[in-house]
């Protein structure tokens, strides 16, 4: 094989996962007559940054605008004697594989590029790729074996607002984890922000009301994986600080934040929380228990 023309190609690809599915591109019949799927991506143009290249290739092959992670894995394949452009060559392929993600409200994928090396784009179950039901190039299996979800740890501050026999709750929108469930108003701390300051800011954004922050009543944490509002698949660890907060007796909650993870803010009967009639996050019950333990006994 030493006399064959040498060809080296550098290409960038993205592993894009969502809710147990992976975004793949089907190679065109000009590349292979058989059905075969690969990661969206392709060769770098001369002088092109690999991150710019993968964004461009994902758009051309799937019609979607992707965000790309900061790090990548590099795979090297020496392919002596393969066919390229109608003749045998001694090929060396360097493949830079990034983590990528697309918005949660992205449209169905479709090929934009005309006359390229892909003929279709689709979401496929990861399990179907791993068990061979969806035929994929070896690079896809290698990338899936090496992929680890982005680890995101967030400290949040939340408000427990109880007025007589009701508690102020918010319902999580389709943009957030656990959509449709009810939880305490609150959210992640901004860099340098105090927890009590974050509680008041989040209360205004999610419920449109002001309050006075009292004592810390619970520290709650949960660990799960899922699709974040950005569309990125994350290994998520949330640590929540719940504070008692008082508001005006005539306060009427209304969501003030636009395009957030809260779709409804409302006073909810405590009886509905205690009976399980309402789907609430564990943070709500833990904060209520913590507040009850702080109150002096009257018997």
UniProtKB/TrEMBL annotation:
Gene3D superfamilies: Nucleoside Triphosphate Pyrophosphohydrolase. Keywords: Hydrolase. PROSITE patterns: NUDIX, NUDIX_BOX. GO terms for molecular function: hydrolase activity. Residues 7-146, 152-292 form the Nudix hydrolase domain. Pfam families: NUDIX (PF00293). PANTHER family: ADP-RIBOSE PYROPHOSPHATASE, MUTT_NUDIX FAMILY PROTEIN. Belongs to the Nudix hydrolase family. This is ADP-ribose pyrophosphatase YjhB (NUDIX family). It comes from Nocardioides soli. The lineage of its organism: Bacteria, Bacillati, Actinomycetota, Actinomycetes, Propionibacteriales.
């Amino acid at each position: 094989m030493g006399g064959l023309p040498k060809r080296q190609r550098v290409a960038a690809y993205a592993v894009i996962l969502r809710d147990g599915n992976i975004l793949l591109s089907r190679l065109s019949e000009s590349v292979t007559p058989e059905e075969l799927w690969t990661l969206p991506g392709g060769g770098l143009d001369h002088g092109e940054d690999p991150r710019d290249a993968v964004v461009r290739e994902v758009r051309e092959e799937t019609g979607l605008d992707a965000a790309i992670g900061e790090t990548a894995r590099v795979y090297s394949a020496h392919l002596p004697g393969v066919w390229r452009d109608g003749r045998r060559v001694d090929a060396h392929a360097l493949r830079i594989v990034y983590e990528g993600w697309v918005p949660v409200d992205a449209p169905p994928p479709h090929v934009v590029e005309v006359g390229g090396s892909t003929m279709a784009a689709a979401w496929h179950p990861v399990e179907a790729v791993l068990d061979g039901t969806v035929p994929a190039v070896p690079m896809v299996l290698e990338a899936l074996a090496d992929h680890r979800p982005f680890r995101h740890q967030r400290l949040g501050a939340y408000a427990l607002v109880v007025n007589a026999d009701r508690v102020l709750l918010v319902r999580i929108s389709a943009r957030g984890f656990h959509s449709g469930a009810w939880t305490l108003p609150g959210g992640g701390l901004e860099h340098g922000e105090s927890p009590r300051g974050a509680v008041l800011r989040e209360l205004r954004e999610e419920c449109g009301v002001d309050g006075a922050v009292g004592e810390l009543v619970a520290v709650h944490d949960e660990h799960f994986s899922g699709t974040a509002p950005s569309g990125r698949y994350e290994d998520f660890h949330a640590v929540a600080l719940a504070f008692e907060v008082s508001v005006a007796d005539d306060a009427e909650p209304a969501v003030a934040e636009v395009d957030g993870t809260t779709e409804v803010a409302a006073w909810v009967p405590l009886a509905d929380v205690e009976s399980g009639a309402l789907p609430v996050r564990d943070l709500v019950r833990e904060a209520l228990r913590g507040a009850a333990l702080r109150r002096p006994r009257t018997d």
